Amino acid sequence: MATAPKPTAPARVYDVIVVGSGGAGLVAACAAADRGASVAVLERAPLIGGTTAISGGHLWIPCHPHLGALGLTDTREDALHYLDRITLGSTAGPVIEAFVDNGPRLVTYLERDLGIPLFAVRRPDYHPDFPGAAESRTLEPLPLDASALGPGLPGVRTSPTRPPLTSAEARTGVPAGLAEERRAKGILTQGAALVAGLVLAAARRGVDLCTGQRMGELIEEDGAVRGVVVHTAEGERVALRSRRAVVLASGGFEWNPALRSDFLPRVPALPVSPPGNEGDGLRLAMRAGARIAGMSEAWWTAAIAVPGQTYDDRPMTRNAVRELAFPGSILVNAAGHRFADEASSYNDLGKAFLAFDQQRHTFPNARAWLITDSAFRRQYPIAGLAPGTPTPSWIPTHSDLGGLAALAGIDPLNLTATVSTFNTHARNGVDPQFERGHNPHDRYNGDGGHQPNPCLGPITTPPFHAVPVTLGINGTKGGVVTDHLGRVLGSSGNPLPGLLACGNVAQSLMGPGYAGSGASLGPALTAAMTVGGEAARQLPAPRT
């Protein structure tokens, strides 16, 4: 993790104040500055980047300009058709159309104007069998040398779990020692590279990047938002004025137990994002009269919490993705039953944890385990554990499945029967129960060298292992409702003057679905580009 310098003290008056320093906040800041506005970005943490910085940095953008070089085509009609299916009609047509139409413009803006080169990721959409699905709609930033940031800029947050490799390098393999060499040189990749590039672009535009500044309240005058009151890292309370607008880009509320209890399903879930996403902007926007929607939705995932691991002095939880898709593993609940296609997209798999048993009045999948054997442990990583390394004591291990079930608290008869049935079909490369490995997305996450199905293999070699898996939250999807310009709407449906929003503090365009890798950041940054321009065009506050 980068070392955090002393927080920068903001000036007292700006044209535009952006709250939150993730990708959406930084893009909005740059777009506002490009239209002549003086801009401050306020970040409550000592490091810049928020959830974006620890992510894969992927942007899902239909019809992006790199497709032609790959010999691929995409159409507006296909993208709209696909998104209508993904969102189940939960998002207003003008909002979806604005994203599809402006997404390619975002790519050009990032590369040409902000100096952030991108490459297309060769992977299918998450639902390749849906009408309108396509390949390679995902983009990723190239590696960036963090030394370019210099001593005068704030430090960028980095992922505690992702090595400094691109997603392509992580899949195909790299020379031994490359990751360590990049760490030593300060080379950033994926989400951290995206944030670092945006920090450089913002600095070139004169944007003030101010860490250690937590928003405490909105300043409202004459029926409009005219600034914010912040609580600094030194304990001061400072009023900052905005001549034109305040942009909320402060993230979701997955680290706020009260808001989670109020809005999310009653299934235990662990945040996978950096601590600090406590819904600050959401709470204050609600107080100002903002309408909210989609509050029961989140960017769900299967997750693994490794005992003793922390991030920002809080318990750390890891996404579980490819270990669930590799051959020789299954996910079971306490009853010993499989309950989903383990290789499906992490958001869809996460939703399977929310299933409700109306007869028993329980969530039967709330507790789950990844069942593997020693052959799997020798070949594939699990939750950061390298293949072939000793299995730690927090993972129940036994020489037979019945004994493993007893250790983990799983029904032993059902687990034995489930594995036996799965093995019979896995040897033939089929999964009649959940069709694991049946589509290109599943196979993308599997082992391409394993046949006949890269996602299916028997579990036969003792000792056997049961890795505890829980529901995780990459971020929340619900938030303030905005129009196609990013203006926050009140309960009457009219914009609240001087207040805009983008990123996870706003209602997600994706609704209950997830279109493809980067379908959180792609729409968020596209909206942020529009939001920044709109913020700079807001009427200045009356002069006193």
Please explain how this structure is put together.
The chain is α+β, with helices and mostly antiparallel strands. It has two domains: 13-292 and 477-537, FAD/NAD(P)-binding domain; 299-473, Alpha-Beta Complex (Flavocytochrome C3, Chain A, domain 1), CATH 3.90.700. The chain has helices at residues 23-33, 50-54, 76-87, 93-113, 167-172, 178-185, 190-204, 257-263, 280-287, 322-325, 346-352, 374-379, 401-408, 412-426, 440-445, 521-537, and strands spanning 13-19, 39-43, 59-60, 118-121, 138-141, 144-145, 187-188, 208-211, 213-221, 224-232, 237-248, 269-271, 292-293, 298-311, 314-319, 329-333, 368-373, 397-398, 464-476, 479-480, 487-489, 495-501. Strands 1, 2, 8, 9, 10, 11, 21 and 22 form an eight-stranded mixed beta sheet that branches. Strands 12, 14, 15, 16, 17, 18 and 19 form a seven-stranded mixed beta sheet that branches. Helix 4 crosses helix 16. Residues 1-6 have low confidence and may be disordered.
Structure summary:
The chain is of the alpha+beta class. It is built from 16 helices and 22 strands. The strands form five sheets. Strands 1, 2, 8, 9, 10, 11, 21 and 22 form an eight-stranded mixed beta sheet that branches. Strands 12, 14, 15, 16, 17, 18 and 19 form a seven-stranded mixed beta sheet that branches. Strands 3-5-4 form a three-stranded antiparallel beta sheet.
Write the layout of secondary structure elements.
Elements: E1 13-19, H1 23-33, E2 39-43, H2 50-54, E3 59-60, H3 76-87, H4 93-113, E4 118-121, E5 138-141, E6 144-145, H5 167-172, H6 178-185, E7 187-188, H7 190-204, E8 208-211, E9 213-221, E10 224-232, E11 237-248, H8 257-263, E12 269-271, H9 280-287, E13 292-293, E14 298-311, E15 314-319, H10 322-325, E16 329-333, H11 346-352, E17 368-373, H12 374-379, E18 397-398, H13 401-408, H14 412-426, H15 440-445, E19 464-476, E20 479-480, E21 487-489, E22 495-501, H16 521-537
Helix pairs in contact: 1-7, 1-16, 3-4, 4-16, 13-14
